[in-house]
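Appendix B. Worked example

We walk through a single record from start to finish. Start with the input: the chain for Redoxin domain-containing protein, Phototrophicus methaneseepsis, length 650.
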Amino acid sequence: MQEITVGLALIAGILSFISPCVLPLIPAYIGYMSGRMTHSVAVQTAGATTAGTTGNQTVTARVNLLIHSLAFILGFTSIFVVLGLITTGVISAFGGASFLLTDIISRVGGLAIILFGLHFMGILPSIFRWLRQHPPILNSIWLTLAITIVVVAILPWAFVEVLIALPVITAFLLWLFIGGAFAEPGLFWGRLMGGFERFFYTDTRKQIDANDAGGLGGSYFMGVVFAAGWTPCIGPIYGAILNTASISGDMGTAIVSLSAYSLGLGIPFMLTALLLERVQGILKRLQRHMRLIEAISGGFLIFIGVLVASGRLQSLSTTLSTGEFSDFSYRVEECSVGFIQGHLAFEHLGSCYDGQLDPIAINQGMIGELSSDTQKREYIFLIDEENISEGYAVDVELMRLENITPTVTLYGPDGSAIATGDVLIQFEENKYKIIQNAKLSAPGLYRVSIKDEIPDSTEADYQIRIVQSSGEVIGASETQADGAVSDLAAAGIGSIETLAQQSEPLTGFEIGNQAPDFTVTTIGGETVHLSDLQGQTVLLNFWGTWCGPCRREMPEFQDLYSRYSEDGFTILALAVNDTLQDVIDFKDEFGLTFTLALDTDDVVNKQYGITSQPSSLLIDADGIILYKSFGIVTEEQLEPLIREATGTAG
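Next comes the structure step. The output line below is what the pipeline stores for this chain.
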C-alpha cells in the first residue's frame, strides 16, 4: 500500500484544485469573496469624499481579504477531516448521523448564504435602516409575531426531521420570551440587527471601516457550509489516505494526512483571493455602477445559497465538467505525484499530462487505446534499489485486445532497448504475454512502448500489465493460471471462506457484516433489491459520470463482469448527482453491460455512509461484505477475491 507523507498529501491537495469535483466550490467561493470585496469597495468609495484612502488602508484591506480566505479554508478543513474519518470508519459511531448532520448544515447554511447575498445587495441593510426610522413598527408586537410564524414554519425543513426541529423551535420560542421580543420588541430587534451586522460583515450603525477584519466567524461558517454540501471524488492520494485510515484505524495519522490534503486544496483558494484583490482598482473606477455590481454579486450569492440549501451544489460539477476534462485533471494529479515520488523524470511530464505516457506500477493493469492519430503509447515504471535483486525480471502482459498485434519494447534507464516482442503467447483466456523474463539489472526508470499501425478512423483498445516474472517462459501451446494476488488482497482481507461461514453476522457496513438491503431503480426502469442478488457475488460501486477516477475504473469492471458473470459474479453501480441521460450516455460510451442505477436523493449513499466517489464494496453470495475500498479499485485487486468468492480460483 502506498505510503502517504504529509508533504505528498499537501501537494495532492493543491493539484486537486483543478478537479471537476472541486468545481462547485470555486464559483461559490468566488461569489462569497467577491461579494465581500464589492461591499468593501462600495464603502471605501462612499467614504472617499470625506476621508482619503491611504496606502496603509489598501495594504490592510489586502491582508484582511487573505485572513477571510484563511477562515474559509479552516472551516472547510474542519468538516472535510471529520467526514473523512467517518467515511473510513475511524469514528464509525457517528457514521449513521453524518449525512443527517451535513444535510442540516447544508440547509441552514444555504439559508445563511442567501442572507449574505441579501446583505451584499444592500436589501437587508435597507430594511434595517427603514425599521430604525420607524420605531412604532420596530416596537410592535405584531412584528415579533410575524417573524415568529415565518421562522417556526422554516425550522422543520431546515433541520430535516421534526423530532430534531421540535427542541430547536422550543429553544427559539424561549429565547424570544427571555430576550424580551414580546415585552420590549424594539430593544430586542435592535440588538439582534446589530449582532447580525457584526457577524455577517461589520457594524453598519457606525461609519463602516472597510478595512475591518470583523466577520471572520461568517467566513469560517461559509467554509463549513460548502464542505458539508460538497461531494469530493477520490483521486490516487486521497484514496490512499482513506484506505490507510480504514485498515489501520489510526485516527492521529488520518487527521494529519486529511488536514494536509485539505490545506493543500486551500492554497489555490488563497491565491484566488489575492487575484480578486487586484480587481478592487477596477471596481473603484466603476464606482458609478457600484449599486448594479453589488446587486449582481449578491444575486449570484443568493443563487449559490439556493443550490446549497436544496442539495444541488454538486450539480455544478456535472454542468461544468466533461469526460475529457475529468480524465485530464486526474492525469495531472497522477503524473505530478509520480514525478514527486521519482516515478517520472522531468522530461516525461509533458507526455504524461498529454496522455501519451502513463506512470504504471508492477502488477498494475492499465487500459489504453491506439488509433490512427495515436499509434504509439508509452508507460514508465520505477524499480528502486530496494526491489532490485540478482535475477529480477518482468513479463509484459496484454489483455482485452481488439484486432491488433502490437509491437512492445522495454527500455532501460539509459534509454537502450532491453527486450522487444511482437508475438502474443496466450496463457489464459483473453490474456497474453508478449515479453517474458526480461532481466532488469539496475535501479531506475524503465519505459515500455506499445505501437501498431492503425487504419484511418479506427481505434483499438487494450489492457497492459507489467508483472514480476516467475522465470518460466511459456511457449505458444502452454497455458498457466494467474497466481498473482495483489498486495491489497493479501494484506488483511482475510479468508473469504471463513467470513462466509460466520453465523448470524451483524448487519452493518464493515467487513464481515451483512450488507444492509436497499431498493433502487435501474436506468432501464427495473426495480432491484440488493437482497434479490443473494446467491451471487456482488460488486457494489458508488460512482458518478462527473468523477474522473470513476471513469478510470469502469472499463476494468466491464472486463471482470464479462469474464466472471457466468460464474455468479455481478455488478451494481449506483450513480450519484447524475441525470438518467448522463448515465445512459456514459453506458453507451464505455459499452457497459452490467447493471447501472441512479441513487436518487443519495438514499443508498447516505445509508452506507459513502461521502466520496468512487467507493466500492465486494459482497459474497450470502450478503456478507468481504472487501471495501475508497478510490479506484483495480482489476488486479478484485480478481483474486472474485475468484475465491465464486469458487473459480485456480
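Two observations about the output. The chain has 22 helices and 17 strands. The longest strand covers residues 459-468.
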